[in-house]
Amino acid sequence: MIIVGAKGFAKEVLEVVRELDQLKNLVFYDDISIDAPDRLFGQFPVLRNIEAAKEYFLKTDSRFTIGIGNPFLRKKLYDKFEAIGGVFTSTISPSATIGSFEVQINDGCNILPGAIFSNSTSVGKGCLIYYNSLITHDCCVNDFVEVSPGATLLGRCEVGFYSQIGANATILPDVKIGNNVIVGAGSVVTKDVPDNSLVVGVPAMIKKQLPPLQF
Fold first, then answer.
1. Residue 21 contacts by C-beta under 8 Å, 6 or more apart in sequence?
2. Which residues bind substrate (predicted)?
3. pLDDT in tens, 20-59
4. Alpha-carbon distance 27 to 113, whole Å?
5. Residues 209 and 190: beta-carbon distance below 8 Å
6. Which of 68, 77, 95, 177 is deepest in the core (most CB within 10 A)?
7. What is the DSSP letter of 68?
8. How far apart are CA 32 and CA 53, in angstroms?
C-alpha cells in the first residue's frame, strides 16, 4: 500500500496500518517536502514522483490511502492516484467501535482508534474520522469530510461534502451542514449551516463566507 503523504497525519495512518498487520511492502509518497527522508522511521521507502507510484501499483500493490487531512487536498490526491491505476483503500482501526447494522463506510476512509459509529450511519468516500469522535444513529457524512478528535454528530444530522468538523464540536440532531463548511473547535451547531461557511461558538454562528472550492 502507498500512504500518500509522509508527515503529520500520515504517521497516524501508519499506526492503524500496523494495527491491521499490513506493513508488508508499505511505502509513503511525498513529492513536495525536500526534507523528507528516503525512508520514514528508517524503514519505509518514500516515493518521490508519480512515475514511481505508477510502477509500484503495477508491480507491487495497487492500493493507496491518503495521509493528509485537508478535504480539498484529499479529493485532488484521490483523483491523481486513481488516474494512474490506484485502488482507494480504507484503513479502519480495530479499536474503533462500529455498529452491527446498516453501517456504510465507503472507500478510502481513515478511521482512527476510539471512533464510534452507531447503527444506521453512513460515511462517504475518503473521509477522515479522528480519535474519540462519535457518529450516532441515522447520521450521514458525505465524501471527503474531516471529523476531528472528540467531535459528536447526533441523530439524523448530515455533513456535506468537503466539510471539516472541529475538535470537540457538537452537531445537534437533524441539523444539516452544507458543503465546504468549517465548524470551529468546541462549537455547538444548533441549526442548518449553508455551503461555504465558517461557523464558531456556542451556539455556532456564521463568522465568514468561504470561497467555493474549485477543482
1. none
2. 69
3. 999 999 999 999 988 878 999 999 999 999 999 999 999 9
4. 22
5. no
6. 177
7. -
8. 14
Nearest CA to 49 out of 67, 65, 61, 36 is that of: 36
Q: Which residues are tagged catalytic?
A: 137
Is 57 in a helix, a strand, or coil? helix
> Dihedral of the CA atoms 147, 148, 153, 159 (nearest 10)?
-30
Q: Which amino acid is at 106?
A: N
What one-letter code names the amino acid at 201? Answer: G
Binding-site positions read: 69
The residue assigned the cell 461557511 is 197
Let me know if domain 2-89 sits in CATH 3.40.50.720. no
Return the C-alpha cell found at 108: 478510502
Q: pTM (2 decimals)?
A: 0.95
Binding residues for substrate: 69
pLDDT at site 36: 78
- Which H/E stretch holds residue 152? strand 152-153
At residue 19, the 3 state secondary structure works out as helix
> Tell me: the pLDDT tens digits for 173-214?
999 999 999 999 999 999 999 999 999 999 999 999 999 998
Q: Is 92 helix (H, G, I), strand (E, B) or coil?
A: strand
Q: What is the largest CA-CA distance in the chain?
A: 53
Which superfamily does CATH assign the domain made up of 92-202 to?
Answer: Hexapeptide repeat proteins (2.160.10.10)
User: What are the sequence ranges of the domains in the chain?
Assistant: 2-89, 92-202
Burial state string for 151-163 with b = 16 or more CB within 10 A and e = fewer than 16: bbbbebbbbbbbb
